[in-house]
Write a structure and sequence with these properties.
The structure holds four protein chains of four kinds. In chain A, helix 1 runs antiparallel to helix 2 and helix 2 packs antiparallel against helix 3 (61-92). Chain A has helices at residues 2-25, 29-51, 61-92. Chain A has three helices and no strands. Chain A is mainly alpha-helical. Chain B is mainly α. Helices cover 73% and strands 2% of the residues of chain B. Chain B has 21 helices and two strands. Chain B has helices at residues 3-24, 30-56, 79-102, 109-128, 132-150, 156-187, 206-223, 232-235, 241-250, 252-268, 270-276, 279-298, 303-323, 327-358, 369-372, 374-388, 394-408, 413-438, 442-445, 463-481, 489-501, and strands spanning 61-66, 72-77. In chain B, strand 1 and strand 2 form a beta hairpin. By secondary structure, chain C is mainly α. Chain C folds into three domains: 1-193, no CATH class; 250-420 and 427-506, no CATH class; 532-578, no CATH class. Helices cover 76% and strands 1% of the residues of chain C. A two-stranded antiparallel sheet of chain C has the order 1-2. The model of chain C is unreliable at 422-426 (pLDDT under 50). Chain D has helices at 4-21, 25-52, 74-97, 106-122, 126-144, 150-181, 186-189, 197-214, 222-229, 232-257, 264-287, 291-306, 309-318, 322-357, 368-371, 373-387, 393-407, 411-436, 450-468, 471-476, and strands at 55-58, 69-72. Chain D starts with a helix and ends in a 13-residue tail after the last helix. Classes of the chains: A mainly alpha, B mainly alpha, C mainly alpha, D mainly alpha. Chains in contact: A-C, A-D, B-C, B-D, C-D. Chains B and D meet through helix 5 and helix 6 of B and helix 16, helix 17 and helix 18 of D.
Chain lengths: 93, 503, 582, 489
């Protein structure tokens, strides 16, 4: 049981590493938004792993957290994309 | 309405209210503004008189407002604060009249008088401060209130002077804050009490106390224009004459010196300070400043700069008197606190009149002016002779006691410094007096700049300009002549010293 | 209340001086000023010995009309009265006379005040008032020469004031109070009494013309107008002597070193003054040097007063007597010079010359003159065997020297041409000047009889003058001087354009050396050129720093910096947290 | 009491909705009404807390582990009052500044931000703190981008990126803490965070994330551009409250979750970064040419001071002297309040000057002292508080921090506290120098609208009052101090 838990947690950690690396390297706006989204989902993966950490039924709180987290992540990505588009238009003018 | 509580609050409040009222008055309502100014000033003198009588009959005035759990704002009238209160309120009344006459027709008068009264509030606060934190609060307020006065003219030179002034005084303020906080951590809220409060700490915190003393002297020394920290005073001469009169004789420099006197007598206690071994270096520094200031004054061609350097040296008389252990040294210091104010403000009034009526600023443009302006130059001569220390003027009285203090304390170099500075004073004041009275009058040979049209033309210049100068000259003469009586500054100084050295 | 007369008599001239400033009172003042010193004279003559103390004035002012004070007050009042009258007719126009009068009255008030002051601070205040208001008298005629004289007078006066101030301060710190009654004893007991005595001697010595400090006298007296120089020589330099007699511990000192020093300097002053005076070409300078030499006698007397074996009262009496004698004679001579320069008729010149001759002889101490009596008093001071042995030969030599100097002065006076100054006054000139001069000469003539009476009434017990005892001494003097005068006549008759020793001898010599020294301002100017490059150096440095800082700030806004900074902070925090203490 | 809490949160959000839907005058009037209602509610709750200590209110009845619980102690109450006060002032200023419907989208964003700020101080479980921080970020980024030109947009994008980075780091930290302790509620978490490597990692992640959002020195790069390019009311709110919200959360974490006495070394690291921030921010502020950039960099500097609380408070507790710790805590809180009021006043002043003088370059401010004396006076008084000169709140904070630092003999902090004041005086008085210069010809300029000057003066009066009577706020800082070792008082 704990083995599965640790695999997902480990995967989440790896994903966080990739996201940080991408953020450090790329300067293009879209690439950064993508990298930053993977970081978000990595966090949610970690939460998912935590839900299964002890035996018995998976504990519901991380699930609630992940749902709200996703909502927040989507809205901030939307805002970032809107800003990026407006900047692009301004640059063209 | 218990007067003991409210009077010390009303004193600074009166000039604060004047300042706020002036803010409301529009720029062109000259008469109303002058009325408010003078009302505030007279009210203050009346209150000081009442308080003076109260203190004389052993009445305790104290107002205590809690600032935070451990800190409280204390306004208390004791004997030393009474001395400074009387000096600053009377001189402020005269300076207001002078300023009204001087600024006739110049722009931004509302702003000027507003900050002028704010400056007075701060000075009142400083003189009434009952503990170190209140003193610090009003000490910093004074810096801020004086800055707009220095830059009042808005020229590039005025702003440069303002910058230098701020640089010096803000650093001084920060250092004083450090010192005060340090004392606060060692001994908690320090109430001013004759004989000082830090004595019990002696064995354990000797070096810390020495460090604190140096910090406080540096912080206060900026405003007291001790040697390395005096740079701002001559450059601040670019301010209009009533401001330089205010700066030099009434408010700013006096705050610094008053602070040092409080520090030595009421925080450290003079006996303890001597045992700490901090007073000797202070007296050497003061001695050096006296001679340095006089020598620099010798080479200044601008009249007001020469008076500025002479203030630098005269202030250190007070510090020297305070630093020399002994009753007569203290009497000399306290008396000179008042005498220097009277004499120096007369000199600045005369410089202002000369500058304002004839546009004379340089020392060498004075020849023969005595015939054309006998009263002004008469007042200037009396004050100048006072500065030199010839009897029966006030300057002689304090120099006599300072010399006596120095000799009794066994350091004869104090006497040598006093003599040297008197000779130097002669060197830079007598030529001015000689040119003014006996010089070939330039008025006939070269056409002097056209004389300004004056509001109330007395014989030589407008009355509001001339009257204060004559009054302060007369006061500095009588302060010296009737020094023996109880009501003269010397009498008050003797009374204070008796109480201080009584236990 | 009667004590207040003392103060009033001293302050009346001051009050008159101030009222004189008002335009309205100008004309009335012309008549009143000459009589200003009258109340002081009356107080000196008839007032009982008064004591008054005013606690609120200065540091508790004390006034006391004791014997010495009465003598000096009387002398000053007489001389100021004469000079006041003399100055009425002396000046060329009203305007300059009025300017002179204001300072004349101020100095008078100072002089009268200090004679009756009984505590150091009041004495010092009147002394300072007299000194500083005498300066305008010296530079009255506004020529460059009088300006130079005024400058040297002021410099030495300030030096004197400062020495005096330190001496008095040291003395008061010992005595605890400023009264003259307490000071001398405290000085005698003081551990640093030698410094105090030296300071006081020098401080008063400047005024009294002690040799190295006398240099202002031969410059200032000739420059001042006649009435002013008469008073300067007559009573003002005596203030120095009065100071000595009041403050110095007369008779209380153990060692007689100080009295020895004073004796030697007195003699030296006498001879030095005579020699310098002898070579002068203008009568006023010669008279000034004669004052210096005569002050030698007073220093002598003060020295004797300092003798340890209590001969002070006699010495003081002799000193007072000599002061009165010299004051009157010297004032008469100076007024004589002033009158001669205005004398238009031959008869008036002859009268003036004879009067001056008499005063000169009295100075030299010829028999039957006040000078002889005063010198006899000096000789008769019972100051121990050394003095008795040396007194008569010394006095003889000094008298001969003075005689030569007097001869020189009379010769110069004879040759003096009256300067053609037209005067705006109505009545003939000489008539106005003569009464004042004449009264002084008359006082001089009646001196031998009047002087002992005056002194005894003042309270100083002095043996009276009897012609018999003086015949012997006087005869020896006459026998010696007349042949010597005849032999050395070529010397004192010689006329030279320029005096061998210029007036103000020491000062002019030292002064010229000082001018050549680069003035301090040039010395300071050396430093200013360094300021410019130093500020330039700091300016370049700060600009460089600012550019670097701004560049670093821009660098931060790049993306990667933000991420790396975040990661870095995280890891360092983690490590630090991990290293928990405990 | 419970009645006031929903208004506190609901009020501003409802105002946002209303002002979004009805853009006309009615919309604005109604939204202002709702906003003032929430301010009054804030006052009501604080009176409640004053009277009966910590208030706890379970939202919709659900208890701590599952439901969201609202908890108000002394610190939260002061922050609520601060938000209410400054928001009222900013709202009145914005009414004059934006003249009618120039910026229709301003009002919804502004009220949204206000509501989010209120909730942050109420909520007491760490995940809803994350949500509130996100809300604040979105509203703030929207506000920054309002002016619409290219630089403002890229600045707000950079602000968004770095803020979200900080939140995600915080989220990861929350995940690790939840993994270890099993609960999200702050009160239950207090003291249970052990000292293993994973709890160290969690705490450092949370601290780094929040430091990024509070713009501590190395992570401050996004702040100057964002705060200076936003419209004046928004930048006032940004500097005064948004930055403080994340600092508030950091305080909660640092002192409630772990034993403050144990992580001394990390606290001193934060203190060192704070010192660097003070020096760097002040120097930068002195070099800037534009007024709003000066004020923005001054925020970076003043935040440096805030981080002094960690080493001073922790050090005092480690030395076992709780009254020193109290002084440090009170100094810190008063500094937050004083800086918030002073900074918002300064931004409003720069906004007013920008509007009347057309440009906010300092060199163009010649003669401002004559034409806009009151505004310059407000700038002066706010400046005095930043420098820490006596008659202002800033002085009391500086005094308290100074005395604690001297007592614990941290001479470096004492030196930076003093030096920081002097450096601050450089950029504050630099503006005054220029405004005192009288130009040759005095261009006539329109007077500053009443509502703007009233709000500025109100803020300065509050500053002076805080300076003269600091006893009132000081008292409340000690109610329910978030310490594992229980109440300090």
């Amino acid at each position: 049981m704990t083995a599965q838990y640790s695999v997902y947690a480990l995967a989440g950690g790896l994903l966080v590493g990739f996201a940080f690396h991408a953020l450090a390297i790329h300067t293009h706006v879209l690439k950064r938004i993508l990298a930053w989204n993977t970081l978000g989902s990595a966090a949610f993966l970690v939460f998912g792993a935590i839900a299964r950490r002890n035996t018995g039924a998976p504990d519901p709180v991380p699930h609630a957290i992940v749902i709200t987290g996703i909502v927040v992540a989507i809205s901030s990505t939307a805002l970032a994309l809107a800003l990026a588009r407006r900047i692009d238009e301004e640059n063209k003018k | 309405m218990n007067w003991n509580f409210w009077l010390p609050i009303f004193l600074p409040l009166s000039s604060l209210v004047t300042a706020l009222l002036i803010l409301v008055i529009r720029e062109n309502q000259h008469r109303l503004r002058t009325f408010v100014n003078l009302l505030g000033a007279t009210l203050k003198i009346v209150m000081v008189a009442v308080v003076g009588y109260g203190v004389y009959t052993q009445h305790a005035y104290e107002a205590r407002m809690p600032l935070s759990l451990t800190l409280d704002l204390v306004l208390r009238v004791d004997d030393i604060s009474l001395l400074f209160l009387a000096l600053s309120s009377t001189l402020w009344f005269l300076t207001t009249i002078f300023a009204v006459g001087y600024l006739e027709g110049s722009p931004h008068q509302s702003r000027f008088f507003c900050f002028f009264s704010l400056c007075m509030t701060a000075t009142m606060g400083i003189s009434l401060a009952g503990n170190l934190i209140t003193f610090l609060i009003f000490y910093e307020m004074l810096t801020l209130a004086t800055y707009p006065l220095i830059v009042h003219r808005g020229t590039e030179k005025a702003l440069r002077a303002g910058r230098i002034y701020l640089a010096y005084t803000l650093v001084g303020g920060a250092v004083t804050l450090a010192g005060t906080a340090w004392i606060h951590t060692l001994v908690g809220p320090t109430q001013f009490a004759h004989g000082g409060v830090l004595a019990p700490l002696a064995p354990t915190h000797r070096h810390q106390l020495q460090a604190i003393f140096t910090l406080m002297i540096v912080g206060l020394g900026v405003k007291a224009a001790l040697f390395p920290l005096h740079g701002w005073l001559p450059t601040a001469m670019v301010a209009p004459a009533p401001v330089s009169a205010l700066l030099h004789a009434v408010a700013v420099v006096k705050a610094g010196v008053f602070g040092i006197v409080r520090l030595i007598y009421d925080v450290f206690g003079v006996k303890f300070a001597v045992s700490l071994g901090v007073l000797a270096p202070l007296s050497w520094l003061a001695g050096f400043t006296i001679v340095y200031g006089s020598i620099r004054a010798l080479f200044q061609h601008d009249l007001k700069r020469r008076l500025a350097y002479s203030t630098v040296s005269q202030l250190s008389y007070i510090v020297l008197g305070a630093a020399v252990f002994g009753a007569s040294g203290t009497i000399g210091a306290l008396a000179h606190l008042v005498h220097q104010g009277l004499m120096k403000i007369t000199l600045f009034f005369c410089a202002g009149i000369l500058g304002e009526t004839w546009g004379i600023h340089g020392v060498d443009e004075l020849s023969g002016i005595g015939r054309r302006m006998p009263l002004t130059m008469g007042a200037f001569t009396i004050a100048a002779f006072g500065m030199i220390g010839t009897p029966p003027m006030a300057g002689f009285v304090s120099k006599w006691y300072l010399g006596l203090g120095g000799v009794r304390a066994g350091d004869y170099w104090v006497l040598a410094v006093l003599i040297a500075s008197s000779v130097l004073n002669c060197a830079y004041f007598l030529p001015i007096i000689h040119d003014a009275w006996f010089g070939k009058s330039r008025q006939d040979s070269v056409a002097l700049p056209q004389r300004r049209s004056l509001v109330v033309p007395a014989a030589e210049t407008s009355l509001p300009l001339l009257l204060p100068a004559l009054v302060t000259a007369f006061m500095s003469l009588t302060a010296g002549l009737f020094a023996g009586s109880h009501f003269s500054p010397l009498g008050a100084a003797r009374l204070i010293t008796e109480r201080m050295y009584a236990p | 209340m009667n004590g207040a007369i003392l103060l009033v008599s001293a302050l009346i001239p001051l009050v008159l001086a101030i009222t004189g400033l008002l335009n309205g009172a100008r004309v009335a003042m012309d008549r009143i000023t000459p009589w200003a010193p009258l109340p002081a004279l009356l107080t000196a003559l008839i007032a009982p010995s008064l004591q008054v103390s005013m606690p609120s004035l200065l540091f508790g002012a004390e006034f006391d009309l004791d014997a010495l004070g009465r003598v000096f007050l009387g002398l000053s009042a007489v001389l100021w009265l004469a000079a006041g009258h003399f100055s009425c007719g002396y000046f060329e126009n009203r305007k300059s006379e009025r300017r002179h009068r204001f300072f004349f009255l101020l100095t008078m008030s100072g002089n009268l005040g200090l004679t009756v002051a009984a505590d150091a601070v009041t004495f010092y205040s009147f002394f300072a008032l007299m000194t500083f208001s005498a300066y305008p008298l010296v530079i009255h005629d506004g020529t460059e020469n009088s300006r130079r004289a005024g400058r040297s007078y002021l410099r030495l006066a300030i030096l004197g004031e400062m020495l005096l101030l330190s001496g008095l301060l040291l003395a008061t710190s010992q005595a605890g109070s400023t009264e003259f009654s307490a000071l001398p004893k405290a000085i005698a007991l003081a551990p640093n009494r030698n410094t105090i005595i030296a300071l006081l001697l020098a401080g008063f010595g400047v005024k009294a013309g002690l040799v190295p400090l006398h240099a202002w006298l031969p410059l200032a007296h000739p420059a001042a107008p006649a009435p002013a120089s008469a008073v300067l020589s007559g009573t003002m330099i005596k203030a120095g002597v009065l100071g000595w007699l009041r403050v110095l511990p007369l008779g209380d000192l153990e060692s007689s070193t100080w009295s020895g020093i004073l004796l030697a300097s007195g003699i030296f002053m006498n001879l030095y003054g005579a020699i310098c005076g002898f070579v002068q070409v203008r009568p006023k300078e010669a008279l000034a040097y004669s004052s210096v030499s005569q002050m030698g006698y007073l220093t002598l007397a003060a020295g004797l007063a300092l003798e340890p074996d209590g001969v002070a009262p006699a010495a003081i009496a002799a000193c007072a007597a000599y002061t009165v004698h010299h004051g009157i004679a010297k004032a008469a001579l100076f007024l004589g010079v002033g009158a001669l320069s205005h004398a238009d008729g031959p008869r008036v010149r002859v009268l003036l010359l004879t009067g001056s001759l008499y005063c000169g002889l009295s100075l030299a101490g010829f028999p039957l003159t006040t000078g002889a009596y005063a010198k006899w008093l000096l000789k008769s001071i019972p100051a121990g065997k050394t003095w008795n042995a040396w007194a008569s030969p010394l006095l003889l030599v000094t008298s001969i020297a003075t005689a030569f100097l007097v001869a020189r002065i009379i010769m110069l006076l004879v040759r003096l041409q009256p300067d053609q100054v037209k005067h705006a006054y109505g009545f003939p000139l000489a008539m106005r000047l003569l009464p004042a001069w004449g009264s002084l000469v008359l006082l001089g003539v009646l001196g031998p009889w009047l002087l002992p009476i005056a002194l005894r009434s003042a309270g100083l017990h002095v043996t009276s003058f009897s012609a018999l005892e003086h015949i012997g001494g006087g005869a020896a003097l006459v026998l010696w001087t007349t042949p010597l005068l005849y032999i050395g006549r070529r010397l004192w008759l010689r006329t030279a354009a320029q005096p061998a020793i210029p007036p103000g001898d020491l000062l002019t010599f030292v002064g010229s050396k000082l001018e050549r020294l680069t003035p301090i301002s040039k010395f300071l100017a050396v430093f200013t050129p360094w300021k410019k490059p130093f500020s330039r150096f700091t300016q370049i440095r700060t600009e460089g720093l600012i550019k670097a800082v701004v560049r670093m700030e821009e660098a931060q806004t790049r993306w990667d910096f933000g991420m790396i900074a975040l990661a870095l902070t995280w890891t360092t925090l983690w490590v630090f947290l991990h290293w928990r203490t405990g | 009491m419970s009645g006031a809490l929903p208004i506190l949160i609901g009020g501003p959000f409802a105002a946002a909705m209303v002002s979004f839907l009805f853009t006309g005058a009615i919309g604005r009037a109604l939204s202002v009404l709702l906003a003032t209602a929430s301010a009054v509610a804030a006052l009501a709750t604080s009176i409640e807390v004053m009277r009966s200590g910590v208030q706890i209110h379970a939202l919709a009845g659900w208890g701590a582990p599952l439901g969201i619980e609202l908890r108000i102690d002394g610190l939260a109450m002061l922050m609520l009052l601060l938000t209410a006060g400054i928001s009222l002032a900013v709202t009145t200023f914005a009414a004059g500044y934006l003249k009618g419907d120039a910026q229709p989208h301003f009002w919804p964003l502004w009220y949204f931000l206000w509501g989010a700020l209120n909730t942050v101080f109420l909520v007491s479980d760490i995940f809803s703190l994350y949500v509130c921080l996100e809300l604040i970020t979105l509203a703030a980024v929207g506000g920054t981008a309002l002016s619409g030109d290219r630089i403002a947009l890229s600045a707000s994008l950079r602000y968004l990126m770095s803020a979200i980075m900080g939140s995600l780091a915080y989220l990861l930290g929350v995940a690790m803490i939840y993994a270890q302790v099993g609960t999200l509620d702050l009160t239950q978490l207090s003291g249970r965070l052990g000292s293993s490597w994973s709890s160290g990692a969690a705490l450092s992640l949370v601290t780094a994330g929040l430091a990024m959002k509070t713009a501590l020195f190395p992570l401050h790069f996004w702040l100057p551009a964002a705060h200076s390019l936003a419209p004046a009311p928004i930048s006032a709110a940004l500097s005064a409250m948004v930055v403080k919200a994340s600092f508030y959360v950091l305080l909660r974490f640092w002192f409630q979750l772990s034993e403050p006495t144990s992580n001394q070394l990390a606290a001193h690291l934060l203190g060192a970064l704070g010192m660097a921030a003070v020096l760097w921010g002040s120097v930068q502020a002195a070099l800037q040419e534009r007024l709003k950039l000066v004020v923005a960099y001054s925020t970076v500097a003043q935040i440096g001071y805030l981080f002094f609380i960690f080493p001073l408070f922790g050090g005092a507790l480690a030395a076992g002297r709780s009254e020193w710790a109290q002084e440090a805590w009170k100094g810190g809180i008063i500094l937050i309040l004083a800086h918030a009021v002073a900074k918002s006043a300064m931004f409003l002043v720069s906004g007013a000057l920008l509007q009347t003088f057309g440009s906010d370059r300092i060199s163009d401010l010649k003669g401002a002292a004559v034409r806009a004396p009151l505004t310059l006076a407000a700038w002066g008084i706010a400046g005095i508080s930043l420098i820490g000169l006596p008659p202002s709140g800033g002085f009391i904070a500086k005094w308290l921090l100074l005395t604690t630092a001297i007592r614990q003999e941290y001479w470096l902090y004492v030196a930076v506290l003093l030096l920081g004041g002097l450096l601050a005086s450089v950029y504050v008085f630099r503006v005054l120098w220029h405004s005192f210069l009288t130009p040759e010809e005095m261009p006539s300029v329109s007077r500053i609208p009443g509502s703007m000057s009233i709000s500025i003066l109100a803020l300065t009066v509050v500053l002076l009052l805080m300076g003269l009577r600091p006893a009132i706020p000081l008292e409340f800082t000690l109610i329910g101090i978030p310490l594992p070792a229980g109440d300090l008082r």
